């Protein structure tokens, strides 16, 4: 999965001939299910196709409520039940047409393994990738440096997890609004940003690179955090409600030479993308699988092998898969105040906003920065420096400083009081989890035998 490994999907003339003889077929059905649109995808199988299909659906902000995956042999046959963010079926003809066109295109079914659908290098901006040690005020300092260097941030995505931070930032020149290509100027930007990322921590490396922007941003963030080994636990404590902690188990299916991976976690948008992305970039192939989401919990079960055809063969490999899948789920699972900012864009806006957050004692857990038709549309996930939920008086202070019409609270989860018996029931909860896992796995193994 390391970025130094350049894995290419076999795209020779024979593969293209097979592809033309067996073009992908996508059926979008709004009649067979009462509460979801059913999307069936049939195609010649290639490693990475499952991720590409899931990415197309999640990039449209569709919610995958159920999925049935089968890609044994040379054929890929998957079924997805999807809704929009409001829980409704997908009726929009433009969206339906886009799904059909994207999933039946060569770009989707002959991708570069570490790249993704529909992402092209841009001359409109310079893409900067950053990784380093997380700390309060880090994004504010990065934005201040970029502003001082006459750079304008037009888009950015920032993740933090397990003391590490990763960001993909698109910048333009302040005066020309074009990409920055001068090598000397880029070298200066790199030097100053690396100093900010490093801070006082010399035990872990800080990296800043200028990329071609070829890889899907969210997939690239997963890769960057994996390369930075954020899955290695420094502090075993869990932030937030213990019940929301992801649970991952693996077991052997010796009859079919599969490893079974079972995941239970709090349901949220893009969860399936995060787990499938991690398995794919770790060079595992999902042969069979089922995904089901309830009112709050998501259940995922996969039958996997490594690309060399072998199941997981050692305890060290097993633990690494478990840790990496837990990290993939946790990176976007921060339970904090979620604020949306909508206002007129201007140079230095992000620097000012992040400074206000810092001055109010807030820590940025995640950020999604974008500019749409001259307007800044930004989403921030925040907590207090201590990790506690943000108090109402702090939200009022932010509204006064930023503007009440510009700031909207999207989510403000307050942790429920813990019942006295919570500690005594932990063992039975985990016991029930593995009983259910074993039952589900036994049922699926029998169906495949």
UniProtKB/TrEMBL annotation:
**Which superkingdom heads the taxonomic lineage of this protein's source?**
Eukaryota
For this protein, what is any one GO molecular function term? amino acid binding
Q: Which residues does the UniProt record annotate as the domain ACT?
A: 38-117, 127-204, 338-416
Q: Which UniProt keywords apply?
A: Repeat
Q: Which SUPFAM superfamilies has this protein been placed in? A: ACT-like (SSF55021)
- According to its UniProt entry, what is the function of this protein? Binds amino acids.
Q: What is this protein called?
A: ACT domain-containing protein ACR
Q: Which organism is it from?
A: Elaeis guineensis var. tenera (Oil palm)
The coding gene here is LOC105051016
